[in-house]
Amino acid sequence: MSKSPEEEHPQKAFGWAARDKSGVLSPFNFSRRVNGDNDITIKVLYCGICHTDLHQIKNEFGDSVYPMVPGYEIVGVVTVVGKNVTKVKVGEKAGVGCMVGSCGSCHSCTDDLENYCTKMILTYNARYQDGTPTYGGYSDNIVVEEHFAIRFPENFPLDAGAPLLNAGISVFSPMKYYGLCKPGMSFGVVGLGGLGHIAVKFAKAFGMKVTVISTSLSKKKEAIEHLGADSFLVSHDQEEMQAAMGTMDGIIDTVSAFHPLLPLILLLKIHGKLVMVGAPDKPLELPVFPLLVGRKLVGGSGIGGIKETQEMIDFAVKHNITADIEVIPMDYVNTAMERLAKGDAKYRFVIDVANTLTP
Fold first, then answer.
1. H or E stretch at 37
2. Domains, the chain, ranges and CATH?
3. Which residues neighbour 225 within 8 Å (Cβ) at sequence distance 6 or greater?
4. What is the pLDDT of residue 6?
5. I need a surface site. Which of 37, 208, 273, 346 has the fewest CB within 10 A?
6. What Gene Ontology biological process does one annotation of this record name (predicted)?
């Protein structure tokens, strides 16, 4: 007779969960596995809210399993370490991003690209190898294999650092892989949201000339004066867009809504690269001819491996890059989701789990 999830994972935990596709979150008692020899237990201090959390709690991707505890921008303090653990010590700060497991032996895993492993285990809305569900960071603790933990230094702000574990690596990884990280390059960022504002910060730290491309003129002052972008384009202003044609070495597109790609492709120089990191729920139209006449590339990227995620955090620490956040109590999370759905976030909600999560 098989064991119940509570028997398999007997360590008590408490968080907030969605019970159905209404997406309404409420208090939830559940369990996690006992800390193993290769595991660490983290007391969660902060957890960022990603737009994917909103999609998942409402089953907009069609694969949601309830009850669901979202959250994969998790930071906290290490409270338990297994006997084989060498990465962190009790009392040190650590984080958990989008994944908590992979096969460890495929080409992706051996190339430090666990995020592309076909057996990669997501931090929530997935199942461990024993069949029990994974639960995310809208909770008081998490147990994770040390390999999938990210070290955070003592002097780095954990609340504003938490979103880097998803939003940060989602833009850092493609910028590095596609070579869009060289000083003097002309670089475009489409969408000034959770991912986009961090992309601007990384691009400036790489020494690039940065143009923000947005549908909203109201974001121009913020982009240039606060985030340090060099210029700003309103994507529906045909004169502005035409004047900028053929001027960019690369563009990162963070938009998750349906939008035309042709105007962006036309902004690229010969050999320019348009990299998609947003996830629209409807297919986008891709015109091929403009790619042929300039040997242009449209690519994609999804988060990053553990080694690169640590490199990203270390780079962010060195260059003092954090997310712009609004810290909220746990009981505000449903309102935050409503605001996120309306685009009313500047630029990332972060839950103060340690101080506001109460049974």
1. none
2. 11-165+323-352 (3.90.180.10), 167-300 (3.40.50.720)
3. none
4. 55
5. 37
6. lignin biosynthetic process
Which tens digit of pLDDT belongs to each residue from 119-176?
999 999 999 998 999 999 999 999 999 999 999 999 999 999 999 999 999 999 999 9
One-letter amino acid identity for 176?
K
Question: 273 pairs with which residues across the strands?
Answer: 250, 297
Q: Is the peptide bond before 290 cis (omega within 30 degrees of 0)?
A: no
Two structure tokens written together for 225:
């004066």
Q: Is the pTM of this model over 0.90?
A: yes
User: pLDDT tens across 179-234, in order?
Assistant: 999 999 999 999 999 999 999 999 999 999 999 999 999 999 999 999 999 999 99
**Distance of alpha carbon 256 from alpha carbon 290, whole angstroms:** 23
User: In the chain, which residue ranges form alpha helices assigned H by DSSP?
Assistant: 5-8, 51-57, 107-110, 158-161, 167-177, 194-205, 220-221, 238-243, 262-265, 289-292, 306-319, 333-341, 353-356
Q: Residue 347 in 3-state DSSP? A: coil
Q: Which amino acid makes up residue 121?
A: I
Strands, sheet with 231-234, edge to edge from the N-terminal-most edge strand = 231-234, 209-214, 186-190, 248-253, 268-276, 297-300
Largest CA distance in the chain: 69
